[in-house]
Structure formats: C-alpha cells, structure tokens
C-alpha cells in the first residue's frame, strides 16, 4: 500500500508543478503555441502578416534631422 501512496503523491506533485508552470509562464507559452500553430498550418503565408506599405524606417525625418547636426570634436 505504501507504493501506491507514493505513486499518488508523485503524480499529484507533477500535476501541481505543471499547473504552476502553466500559470507562471502563460504569456510566453501562448505566444510559443501560436507560433507553432502558424508554423504547422499549411495555409499560413508569412507575407500576409507584413504591412508592405509601411516605411522601413518610420522615424526617418527625426533620424535625418539628428544626423545633420554639427558636432565639434576637440
């Protein structure tokens, strides 16, 4: 009877550990599962997600203004 009790306690510990990890890492696990689902979906096209009209550097005006400043090196 001791072996059965030990086995039940071990199974309960594994189940509680699994639940703890699922709760603690929920956002990360959901993103990973979504990525796996997309990867295994034969109808998924990664090009459909990309916004092809968006500029590659959206802060170009700010970057150009910042790069044209004069710096005096001594």
TrEMBL record:
Key words, A-Z: Signal
Oxidoreductase recorded as keyword: no
Keyword Signal: yes
InterPro entries: OEP7-like (IPR038944)
Signal peptide: 1-17
Parts of the chain that traverse the membrane: none
Chain spans, region Disordered: 37-56
Superkingdom as given in the UniProt entry: Eukaryota
PANTHER family associated with the record: OUTER ENVELOPE MEMBRANE PROTEIN 7 (PTHR33982:SF1), OUTER ENVELOPE MEMBRANE PROTEIN 7-RELATED (PTHR33982)
Protein name per UniProt: Outer envelope membrane protein 7-like
Originating organism: Salvia divinorum (Maria pastora)
Phylogenetic classification of the source organism: Eukaryota, Viridiplantae, Streptophyta, Embryophyta, Tracheophyta
